[in-house]
Amino acid sequence: MNTNQKNLIKATIPFLKTNGTDLTKHFYATMLSENPELNNLFNISNQASGRQQNVLANTVLAYAENIEKPTVLINILKGIGNKHVSLNIHPEQYKIVGHYLISSIKAILGDAATAEIIEAWTEAYNELAQIMISLEDGMYQSKVRKTGGWKGWRTFIISDIVEESAEIKSFYLKPKDKGTITDYHPGQYISVKTFVPELQHEQPRQYSLSSAFNPEYYRISVKKDQNNQHLPDGIVSNILHKKNIGDEIEVSAPSGVFHLDTHSENPMVLISGGVGITPLFSMLEANKNSVKKKQLYGCIAAVMRKSMHLKTI
Ligand SMILES: Cc1cc2nc3c(=O)[nH]c(=O)nc-3n(C[C@H](O)[C@H](O)[C@H](O)COP(=O)(O)OP(=O)(O)OC[C@H]3O[C@@H](n4cnc5c(N)ncnc54)[C@H](O)[C@@H]3O)c2cc1C
Ligand code: HEM
Fold first, then answer.
1. I want to staple 182 with a disulfide (CB 3.0 to 4.6 A). Which of 149, 161, 177, 256 is the partner?
2. How many domains are there within the chain?
3. pLDDT tens per residue across span 49-73
4. 82 within 8 A of 27, measured Cβ to Cβ
5. Ligand 2 within 6 A of 104 CB?
6. How far is the CA of 234 from the centre of ligand 1 (A)?
7. How many CB atoms lie within 10 A of CB 183?
8. Tens digits of per-residue pLDDT, 237-261?
9. Domain identity same for 173 and 244
10. ipTM over 0.90 threshold
11. What is the domain range of residue 183?
12. Same-domain status, 135 and 8
């Protein structure tokens, strides 16, 4: 991108601040209606609540604000890349996203969308897409290289279900192919994908691995999302709570940048809210099993009374 193009991107910052979510709403509405297969990937509740539109608008704005040195965003991009990889996003899909993002900029900017601005944003998007594609390629490769690792989705069988409290169930997952499973950093998550009959398509969600690595299984602990006053019950957690031992579920390899650094000797302080406690169990158990134990300075977990009887997690 040349200096003139970078200046044009910077000139759109005030527009992104005021109209960023109009832009991303237009983007998702057109992309998802014209490419219905992508509904298998995007969380429909995040679309309905506007969460995903806000997150993307903030990311586009942050990119524009740091267009001179986008590398300062590398940690944010790694977090997004981990989410993408856990959802098996492909490089070819960046063309689709680019197409709808640029047409949405045109649509929302209206008459202000000069050919130069559109060219600058096309260039800026392509550069960002290239950074993301290459980050994600590295992540896919390292997953496949690991013993028991895989790319994309793998069928697992629910081998056990433990009712931990009135609203939390732990699911023990073993690969259907009976192969080995890759280890993970305590705090990482997996994506699971299930068919939703009411929607007639699949929906993925992320769940933290709630125990230290055990080569026999992955364990996730899922809170049933229900009784949300005027809002609908959660889709996937309620489907999972109706699953039985022996049922199949699609699982992606462990991902995520929020994890314990087991090599460092720094002490740890663990703080969580609600079901956010699940990665802490993995961290505590991994630390207990580790030769190089960290000193635990404190652990604060805010949980509702009905979730208190956490038996094994
Ligand atoms: C990295 C990561 C790790 C996670 N780990 C865990 C874990 O260990 N255990 C766990 O239980 N969960 C975990 N989660 C949360 C989990 O991924 C799901 O978000 C959760 O299970 C709810 O999914 P759902 O499909 O049941 O609900 P969804 O259908 O996704 O709904 C979520 C919420 O959105 C609300 N909603 C729906 N429509 C609207 C609307 N129009 N406006 C406003 N709100 C609306 C619903 O009422 C509901 O409360 C994790 C999430 C992430 C990102
Ligand atoms: C440069 C281009 C892109 C940017 C800046 C971007 C940005 C983001 C951000 C900020 C998130 C939220 C991350 C989180 O919640 O942790 C996200 C999630 C996601 N992205 Fe991307 N993305 C890009 C390209 C793509 C592509 C090509 C696809 C494939 C269709 C894609 C599919 C998804 C999906 C399915 C999610 C999860 C959404 C959800 O949970 O509702 N993204 N992306």
1. 149
2. 2
3. 999 999 999 999 999 999 999 999 9
4. no
5. no
6. 6
7. 15
8. 999 999 999 999 999 999 999 999 8
9. yes
10. yes
11. 148-313
12. yes
